[in-house]
Fold each of these.
Amino acid sequence: WLFVSGRKQIALMADEKPPSRISRRRFATSCSEMGISMGIHMRERKEILDYGMTLPDVYMDAPFHDDNWILLRYKKNKRAFAWTYERNGSVCVNVKVAPEWRDFWRSAYASVLPGYHQNKEHWNTIILDGSIPDDDVKRMVAESYDLIVKKKPPL
């Protein structure tokens, strides 16, 4: 976050609160004036699934007869682009990633890890702990979707 008051600029980490001398209301107003969201970041599977379902020709699938694993697939080739599950008390989502972006996302956020139970070169796991801005989570999901849309159906 960046709080601007006159000539003062105070940079805060995403999980920090503004200093006590700055009211939260004034801080939120300043952030919204600058187009910065004060919302809580994604933490629930429903948020990922709801976002994924807004993409064209997508459906949900539970192929493992295990309610813990819910996948988002592209209808035309049946390929999955988001694997949602709970692990160690957190909701996670695995997304396909272009190799040139894989390390960028992993270094940008501690909650982006090599893909759990998947090819670590082509998949990342996003832990939905609230530390990643919604726009970046959505971008990673959308990029995953874009990567699988071009693929042919599996044999």
Amino acid sequence: MESGYAAAWEFKRARANFVSAQMAHYARESFDGEPGLHIVEKDETLKFLADDLVLFRLKKADDTGLTANIPTQQVLAYHDHDQNLFGLPEVQRVDAVYILNTLETDIQDILVVARDGKHLAWTYSLLDGAEGVESLPLPKTSPPDAAPGRRLVRAKAPEKGAETKPRN
């Protein structure tokens, strides 16, 4: 409201676009040249690849931590961990999301969210730490049954007797 742009925010979509553009601008400015962090710009969106292990994007989420993207093929592929994105190596794909309070006047939480299709796999709040932001919890070693490059999020097996659609 203090930005001087509040009069232009007659519609929620206008504010959302403004916030998204500001996040992209300041993220690019902050992360540019950061060792181990690569900016992936494609189809008018930014994604960030950290240490060739985690690919993340900045999004707005509902109060459960889920984003509300139009389900394009690209969006569906981002949350389908069996699909390769942009020819990148197998990486954990997550969203760094902000959640607004009920009146949408303040940020209630900032989460790192992993999804498996339409379902949350796990969430991690960046605001829970009493002394500031904590590091994202990553496993120290792979489980004994893990093959090299195995993802943290595994797709669920189809239920017995359920119809399956072939993937293209």
Amino acid sequence: MKCDIILAGVGGQGILSIATILGAAALRENLHLKQAEVHGMSQRGGDVMSCLRLSSDPIASDLIPTGKADLIVALEPMEALRHIGWLSPAGRVVTSTVPFVNIPTYPDTARILDTLGKLPNVTAFDMEQVAKEKATLRASNMVLLGAASPYIDLSPEKSKPAYRPSSGPRVKRWWRQTSPRSAQAGRPPSRSDTTRQPPSQTYNRKRFYPDTYDTRFN
């Protein structure tokens, strides 16, 4: 098993929380992992990027070479586009379509989505709408993690204990109540957790969440 993942977003969106959960789930499956983070101006709306490498064999470097990432998980569309150079030809992008406009020169959102839509393997949807319908807006990152889960070879059952942060009791209780539910909302309802099939045979977001599906994406 080998999966190189680029996690990208804006400070405060929960990118590092996703990395922590995936890392904990990988350890529960006795996988090797390495992680590298670029925080940037994370506390002021700057970009945040994390390289997460999972493998059944030892990993030499924590950095993903250009053009070698199997998956890009982006909580913001421009950040997905910013890191396209890391994606392998057969890789997939899972991204939110909701922009985080934090600069006056932010590009036109329609142009960003049109460019992403030209990629061969893209899953793009309004993660915030799904989060508000199923749990709370604060769980948007968990919805996106659920949407990316079919493309990461980790057992959902073994991943559940990873949704427990090392925070106070109120935060722990909130995470236990909202995070797994939100991840399930993003995950394809028809996907069998016991029968592993290619994602193309099991995942059709347009069918399950038509209001959040962007017709520019497959």
